[in-house]
Amino acid sequence: MTVDVTLEPTRNIDSVVFKLNRELLPPGIGGSFPDSDLAKDDPLASALFKIKGVISVWIIGSEVQVSKDERVSWGRINSRIIETIKQTLA
Predict the structure, then answer these.
(1) What is the spatial distance between Cα 72 and Cα 60, in angstroms, rounded to a whole number?
(2) Which of 25, 39, 48, 56 supports an S-S bond with 29, CB 3.0-4.6 Å?
(3) Residue 6's Cα: distance from chain center in Å?
(4) Long-range contacts of 75-84 (CB under 8 A, 24+ apart)
């Protein structure tokens, strides 16, 4: 199954929710990764932290919330985040 990803802005201009067409974690289970050290055992979170500017990742259900450094524009990293999600989940 191909992974479809849509973006949904949040109230925080430095955070975006990437909604997927499949569940990543069962209901009630979430993964919070405030830094790359805590993400090392999660393949998706770990891959996202390799993108310069990503400062935190939160995964719940079919959503991946990514927060970026305020000095980095979404235009520079959105496509890399989407591609990383698709490649990691392929």
Answers:
(1) 24
(2) 25
(3) 12
(4) 77/51, 77/52, 77/53, 78/7, 78/16, 80/51, 81/18, 81/48, 81/51, 81/54, 82/5, 82/18, 84/44, 84/47, 84/48, 84/50, 84/51
Residue 66: the pLDDT is 98
Q: Per DSSP, what are the bridge partners of residue 18?
A: 7, 64
> Who contacts 53 (Cβ-Cβ below 8 Å, separation ≥6)?
68, 69, 71, 72, 76, 77
Going from N- to C-terminal start, the domains of the chain cover 5-89
Q: Contact 81/48 with Cβ under 8 angstroms?
A: yes
pLDDT average per 10 residues of sequence, the chain (90 residues): 92 97 89 96 97 97 96 96 96
Architecture of domain 5-89: 2-Layer Sandwich (3.30)
pLDDT of residue 26: 86
